[in-house]
Write a structure and sequence with these properties.
The chain contains five helices and nine strands; from the N terminus they run H-E-H-H-E-E-E-E-E-H-E-E-E-H. By secondary structure, it is α+β, with helices and mostly antiparallel strands. The chain has two domains: 64 residues, no CATH class; 115 residues, Mago nashi protein (2-Layer Sandwich), CATH 3.30.1560. The strands form two sheets. The chain has a six-stranded mixed sheet, with no helix packed on it. Strand 4 and strand 5 form a beta hairpin. The longest helix has 12 residues.
């Protein structure tokens, strides 16, 4: 786990936190986060880490919080192509739940019901920050005429802003990792 991910994890649980509280929490997490011999984290190190990551964190009077426009509340992901299937995932980060829906155009297509091992919304959320969904363009389109392409859309609602992105046979550079993360969450391959 990276240090900024540990800070995000602490802020997820606490809401806001002071730098000394973050240091204490990180020190209690043990040697996997702290590399020095005393197993402590210095406030100056945390402050410099947060100050260098201003796109994720707000720092005011030694109180740290996640920027409202980067704190996810709800995400909807839709993927479909001809002849199908259409896949929809709705993730509620506040309730730590998700729903998955798959629809096939061909009524004769039989898909056996399968019990899968599902992932956790909290784990997906931790990885979400590395995909930079809020930096994705609104529209991705491949060159030329696309007849039977794959279309997709992602809508991310945060405390401060809503981000929408979509495309047809063209994807952001983080798409494959994003799809692998979705696959882990839903317990089923989400095509990339």
């Amino acid at each position: 786990m990276k240090m900024y991910e540990a800070i995000l994890d602490i802020l997820e649980k606490k809401g806001t936190a002071t730098i000394p509280l973050i240091c204490q929490e990180m020190s209690e997490r043990g040697p996997r986060l702290v590399n020095d011999l005393e197993n402590t984290v210095e406030p100056s190190y945390i402050k410099s880490l947060i100050s260098s990551n201003t796109e994720l964190f707000l720092l005011k009077d030694d109180i740290v919080s996640i920027r409202p426009e980067k704190e996810p509340l709800m995400m909807t992901v839709v993927l479909h192509g001809y002849p199908g299937p259409e896949m929809r995932i709705k993730i509620d980060f506040k309730r730590n739940t998700f729903t998955y829906f798959e629809w096939h155009l061909d009524s004769r297509a039989t898909v056996p019901f399968m019990v899968n091992n599902y992932g956790f919304v909290e784990d997906f959320k931790k990885g979400l920050y590395s995909f930079n969904v809020w930096e994705w363009e609104e529209d991705y389109q491949a060159e030329g005429i696309i007849v039977d392409g794959t279309s997709w859309s992602v809508k991310l609602q945060t405390k401060g802003k809503t981000y929408e992105s979509g495309g047809l046979d063209s994807f952001p550079k983080e798409w494959r990792g994003f799809c692998r993360s979705i696959s882990t969450l839903i317990g089923k391959k989400f095509p990339c």
